[in-house]
Amino acid sequence: xxxxxxxxxxxxxxxxxxxxxxxxxxxxxxxxxxxxxxxxxxxxxxxxxxxxxxxxxxxxxxxxxxxxxxxxxxxxxxxxxxxxxxxxxxxxxxxxxxxxxxxxxxxxxxxxxxxxxxxxxxxxxxxxxxxxxxxxxxxxxxxxxxxxxxxxxxxxxxxxxxxxxxxxxxxxxxxxxxxxxxxxxxxxxxxxxxxxxxxxxxxxxxxxxxxxxxxxxxxxxxxxxxxxxxxxxxxxxxxxxxxxxxxxxxxxxxxxxxxxxxxxxxxxxxxxxx
Length: 274
Fold this sequence. Notes:
This protein is an all-alpha fold.
């Protein structure tokens, strides 16, 4: 046993206790980290004190119209028998649109529509270019200024009883869109409008094929248009040849008499040749 250490043990214990007491005193002093303004005590009080964060959270969770109601609403909207739930289900509308050959992948693929839109000479750069569409939109007395002017279209839309109020009114257009069996449900349901439009062999794909058909027809229509003037010329030449033949036929013996026998009148001054 270390006799020196054993002999100095009481001294070391006393020094450590003194240091601990001084540290606790500094910690609990009005200027210390515990009790000073904005110190640890204030932070703990904000969390667990009266009307603190924990109490506010408890009230929020207990409120029937709070987070619980919002969660119940989200659960109800995304139920398996609702349009959004069917769209989010496995192999639903969202899965089909995000599949390898779906619209999203075709939109984001290399040299796809998004790449072309963001190219250096693409629509976005032209839109943001100096003197482009954005500059004209934000120009003095431009479309945006006229739209937001006093008494302008935006003010008429937002005024009491205006378009927005009628849209959001009870039994208004928005309610009809969102009601069960409404337009949104018809749009998102299985084999609904959106699926029919974007699905394989759907309306959009048929329109694309129809565009290729039109591309094949246009050269033939152009050739037909070029042939019409020549046809007009041929008809004019044929008419010029037929008129003398008709006049000559009227001069053959017996042709006038057969015409009179059939009840036709002889033109004034017409003398029969026979």
